[in-house]
Amino acid sequence: MLRSPEEALKATLARVAPGTPLRDGLERILRGRTGALIVLGYDKQIESLCSGGFEIGIDFAPTRLRELAKMDGAIVCDKDVTKILRAAVQLVPDPSIETQESGTRHRTAERVAIQTGVPVVSVSQSMQIIALYVDGLRYVLEGSEKVLARANQALATLERYRARLDQVTSSLSALEIEAMVTVRDVAVTLQRHEMVRRISEEIAQYVLELGVDGRLLSLQLEELSTTRGADTVIRDYTDPETTDVDAAVVALQDIDQADLIDLNLIASVVGLPSGGDALDSIIQPRGYRLVSGLKAVPRAVAGRLVDHFGGLQNLMAATIDELMMVDGIGELRARNVREGLSRIAEASLLDRFL
Predict the structure, then answer these.
(1) Residue 209's closest CA among 146, 298, 280?
(2) How far is the first Cα of the chain from the last one, in angstroms, to the nearest whole number?
(3) For the chain, what is the HEC assignment?
(4) Cβ–Cβ contacts within 10 Å for residue 264, how many?
(5) Would the annotation count 238 as a binding residue?
(6) Domain limits of the chain?
(7) Is the CATH code 3.30.365.10 the one for domain 5-141?
(8) Rounded to an integer, what distance in angstroms lies between the CA atom of residue 165 and that of residue 167?
(9) Are 61 and 50 in contact (CB under 8 A)?
(10) What angle do CA 228, 230, 235 make, to 5 degrees?
(11) What range(s) does the DAC domain occupy (predicted)?
(12) Looking at the domain 286-354, which fold is it?
């Protein structure tokens, strides 16, 4: 399966994260101030670009990488970085490939990565930086201290946005119980969901880059990440016959950061009424979001419940006998649904008015 450049970069970051043998070797090269050009993979195309050097085929070790970097030329490893296959190799990529780099080592690294799709690491002797080249992308590795400082700042931002998401979600639940939800309320909830998702993705990138140094950060991210995303909200307020929920989620994620404040745009891309006074119009939930939040109700059963009753107000008013008419709902589950919705209604109204 073909991967996007971003996915390939994430996979490469995992291979060079702190705590890995490769990162140890790269740090040794930096401290030794020798520089290096390392290819993370070997196939027929890479072989065709190699000239001279030595075929060694030894097990990978940070110390070996450091010693081999003292020689001129590139080092070629297997894709899993368990073997060092060749050393002191001259790489001869296509010179017509455009590159923004100026140094010979960096220009070669970028061209090889673009031409072959194989990740290449360049360690600069003069600049003392480690640069990754993956499918046309360039990424400069930084020390754990700098990355962790940015990650902690992003985590503090995530805490604030998650608290705000919880507030607007609770407010939306209360408005749903009272049948007073407007398109604006739904759009604000979707906006907060997307903001939390974007910040979480940014922190996940830091966790990946930090490797073993990001374990505590990973636990904090897991605690703050929301388990239910924007898809449940979209499913609750759009026509299932005309709206592709997955496509609507993608469209929401594709909104430019600067445009995410535009509630009309958010409403438009997910299939809600937009423009004019549409944001203040009343809209009725189907009930999927609240029902899917009940632990006793699987997603498939939640969908059947919503389809059977046609709206949250009908579902809230349903008796246990009426709930049992739905396929997959026995007496025990019907009671759990009835009691669960009652608890949600009570808690939401208390949160709103107290």
Answers:
(1) 146
(2) 53
(3) CCCCHHHHHHHHHHHCCCCCHHHHHHHHHHHHCCCEEEEECCCHHHHHHEECCEEEEEECCHHHHHHHCCCCCEEEECCCCCEEEEEEEEECCCCCCCCCCCCHHHHHHHHHHHHHCCCEEEECCCCCCEEEEECCEEEEECCHHHHHHHHHHHHHHHHHHHHHHHHHHHHHHHHHHCCCCEHHHHHHHHHHHHHHHHHHHHHHHHHHHHHHHHHHHHHHHHHHCCCCCHHHHHHHHCCCCCCCHHHHHHHHHCCCHHHCCCHHHHHHHHCCCCCCCHHHCECCCCCHHHHHCCCCCCHHHHHHHHHHHCCHHHHHHCCHHHHCCCCCCCHHHHHHHHHHHHHHHHHHHHHHHC
(4) 17
(5) no
(6) 5-141, 143-284, 286-354
(7) no
(8) 5
(9) no
(10) 100
(11) 6-145
(12) DNA polymerase; domain 1 (1.10.150)
Are residues 28 and 62 in contact, defined by beta-carbon separation less than 8 angstroms?
yes
* CATH code, 143-284: 1.20.1260.110
On whether 106 is known to bind a ligand per the annotation, the reply is: yes
108 is in an annotated binding site: yes
Report which residue type is found at 16: V
- For residue 175 the two structure tokens come to 């408005």
Find out whether 30 is annotated in a ligand binding site: no
Q: Digits of tens for pLDDT over the chain (354 positions)?
A: 456 888 888 889 988 988 899 999 999 998 888 889 999 999 999 999 999 999 999 999 999 999 999 998 999 999 999 999 999 999 999 999 999 888 888 999 999 999 999 999 999 887 788 999 998 899 998 888 888 899 999 999 999 999 999 989 888 988 888 888 999 999 999 999 999 999 999 999 899 888 888 888 889 998 888 667 888 899 889 888 888 889 999 999 999 999 999 999 999 999 998 888 889 999 998 888 888 878 777 888 888 888 888 888 888 888 888 888 888 888 888 888 888 888 877 776 666 555
